[in-house]
Amino acid sequence: MNPTRPSSEPAYARVDVTEAAARILRDLRAAHGPLMFHQSGGCCDGSSPMCFPQGQFRTGASDALLAELQVEGVPEPIGFWMSAAQFELWRHTHLTVDVVPGRGSGFSLEAPEGVRFLTRSRLLTDEEDEVLNKTGR
Amino acid sequence: MARYAAPGQSEAKMSYQSRYDHWIGGEYVTPHRGQYFENPSPVTGQTFTEIARGTAEDVERALDAAHGAAPAWGRTPVAQRAEVLNKIADRMQEHLEALAVAETWENGKPIRETLAADLPLAIDHFRYFAGAIRAQEGSLAELDDDTVAYHFHEPLGVVGQIIPWNFPILMATWKLAPALAAGNAVVLKPAEQTPASIHYLMSLIADLLPPGVVNIVNGFGVEAGRPLASSARVAKVAFTGETTTGRLIMQYASENLKPVTLELGGKSPNIFFDDVSAADDEFFDKALEGFTMFALNQGEVCTCPSRALIQIGHYRRFLDAAIARTEKIVQGHPLDTETMIGAQASNDQLEKILAYLEIGRQEGAKVLTGGHRAELEGELAGGYYVQPTIFQGSNHMRIFQEEIFGPVVSVAPFSDFDEAIKIANDSLYGLGAGVWTRDINTAYRAGRSIQAGRVWTNCYHAYPAHAAFGGYKQSGIGRENHKMMLDHYQQTKNLLVSYSPKKLGFF
Fold first, then answer.
1. Which residue in the set A44, A52, A119 is minimally distant from B241, CB to CB?
2. Nearest-CA neighbor of B219 among B230, B231, B228, B206?
3. Could you say which DSSP state residue B161 is in?
């Protein structure tokens, strides 16, 4: 997942994408150009990953880049961002961007298609934790 | 048990239209691009109406109407503006049951709550701001014998308001009542999950408002919310939602140098000190109800008391009683008057909650009751229902740090006052909190020590119009409710007047 990682190393990633979500991302890329995610927090639609045209949401020093997602059929990586403070509370978990039927919300690009991206989580394995959290990235 | 008939049935208190257009300039206007989207009821999962799918063109048209109406509305005497708000309240009171049915069908919440909370609170909110605007006065300061500084309140003009889906009518009212009282015209975008009930309300009150003072543009955030939030033609944006969109709205506002108010949620602690269990009395019973408030509105409340912190001296006793109380929650058809918990507002909301139940287990939290989707039968089989769930775990877990927005409470013990405050404040958010104790000194110190905008003390989930509501930390900026809210919708005009004919002598 991380394009900067040499291919000889085990490919540990903080974030993956399901095939169903990848299909939506290909459509959104065709319609809107390069994309990005920012993982939300808080109420209502908090905890949902928000998908924007790249650069629409301004990230800054208070954000962490968790992954640059490689999606087949999407020419450039899709950055997956989260506020750094929130990331400290999430860093022991692996995230998978999935998609479910739904209505919104926020300003995320997929909502008019009648679907909603959803972040599924699991604990990092010990090996993943060692590589991702202890030896850096 | 009584069951209200669903909208459109022969005995029903109300029926929805089969389609709603935008409400702009006092009339229904078809969407510029001619598109509509389906609106399902979370009670059954079945579509009951379709809604205009708004875009930037529709937002512009609504802004035209609002700008046309704002100057006259802003000059309308406050007594007349207050009268309009009071008439809205009266009209809502006359149609309270119909509005409650409409809101329950739209959102999935039990009719018990819409009848007793959502609608009465909304009605009172209009009345409160009708009174507050009449009592508001500017000020004057006599700077010297011949110089006076006058301060006037002036409306901002046209404001944009983006409404959440958890209390569609009440949250719209929290934003509309102060904005209208202060003399502003409004362009309002309801949530796409709950776009219809506000139109039913408008159908009851439209004749009371001058055309263009309130305009409703429906649609998706990306297509209708973004053009509204980023418009240079709104003087202010008010938003309730989550942090990423809140930041985005601030970014847009910074481009236009406009103010925002943001309410972005929380992870509210509800603290039960040992002395709560000192007697098995009315207060103990009230505290158990306070614990169980996590299930109010299916947990879809920004201030859901979703972290229960229980002191170790009575931990087992209190928790056992709390589990028993939670297991008495009646889940069922939202239109049944006995139902205590209804449907989650949308399918994606349901899926998100289920994903949290999963990560909670993986992190080692123990399910004390609930923990699954509730499978209801018959016409409810397609609806979005979750069992009231109690987790036991510790505060570093994600289920303690993130607003699940479902009927899920995470419980942890604490040893003493300092640890309770430390855990309570170990959160990115600071919207609501609860403190339960028989000791007034403990109550006061805890309330002042918790970093949150609202600390309910020996109560929870009360929302009177004249108590300020809003967040510390990442829970947002600004307040809602209370007469101070008028300031959020007003400019300050200072006239600095000299009554002296004498020059200064500089030039």
1. A44
2. B228
3. E
The kind and range of the H/E element at B129 are helix B119-135
CA dist B361 → A56, A89, A123, B123, B413 (Å): 36, 16, 10, 42, 18
Amino acid at B282: E
> Helix or strand or coil: residue B112?
helix
Interchain pair A103, B266: CB under 8 A: no
Tokens 């481009």, located at residue? B255
| Long-range own/partner contacts, residues B467-470 (CB < 8 A, 24 or more apart) | B469/B263, B470/B261, B470/B263, B470/B431
Cα–Cα dist B285/B291, whole Å: 10
What are the structure tokens assigned to B298, written together? 């299916």
Contact B140, B106 (CB under 8 A): no
Residue type, B325: R
Helix (H) or strand (E) holding B290: helix B282-292
Look-up of token digits 């505060």: B395
Q: Which residues contact B356 (CB under 8 A, 6 or more apart)?
A: A47, B398, B399, B402, B404, B406, B408
Q: Tell whether the model's pLDDT for residue B430 goes beyond 70.
A: yes
User: Quick one: how far is CA B443 from the chain centroid?
Assistant: 26
Q: How far is CA B191 from CA B86, B97, B197, B222, B466, in A?
A: 26, 23, 11, 12, 25
B302 is annotated as an active-site residue = yes
Nearest C-alpha in B relative to A120? B355
Which of B41, B218, B242, B267 has the highest number of chain A CBs within 10 A, making it the mutation to test binding with A?
B242
Whether the complex's predicted ipTM is more than 0.90 is answered with yes
pTM here is 0.96
Letter string b/e over residues B429-458, b meaning 16 or more CB atoms within 10 A of that residue's CB: bbbbbbbbbbeeebbeebbebbbbbbbbeb
Query: Strand B158-162 to strand B185-189: parallel, antiparallel, or no bridges (unpaired)?
Result: parallel
Evaluate if residue B72 carries a pLDDT over 50. yes
**A39 and chain B in contact, CB less than 8 A:** yes
Interface residue A125 vs chain B (CB under 8 A): no
Q: Based on the number of CB atoms within 10 Å of its own CB, is B466 exposed (0-12), middle (13-18) or buried (19 or more)?
A: middle
Number of H-type helices and E-type strands within chain B: 16, 25
H helices of B146-278, where? 168-181, 197-205, 226-229, 243-256
- Chain B residues 34-63 with a CB less than 8 Å from chain A: 37, 53
Task: Return the bridge partners of B40, or none.
Answer: B47
**φ/ψ of residue B128, rounded to 5:** -60, -50
Mutate to test the interface with B, among A44, A93, A125 (most CBs of B within 10 A): A44
pLDDT above 90: residue A106: no
Q: Can you tell me the distance from the alpha carbon of B89 to that of B3, in angstroms, rounded to the nearest whole number?
A: 26
**Residue B198: per-residue pLDDT:** 98
Lowest model confidence (mean pLDDT) among A7-11, A51-55, A72-76, B377-381: A7-11
Chain B nearest-CA distance from A90, in A, is 7
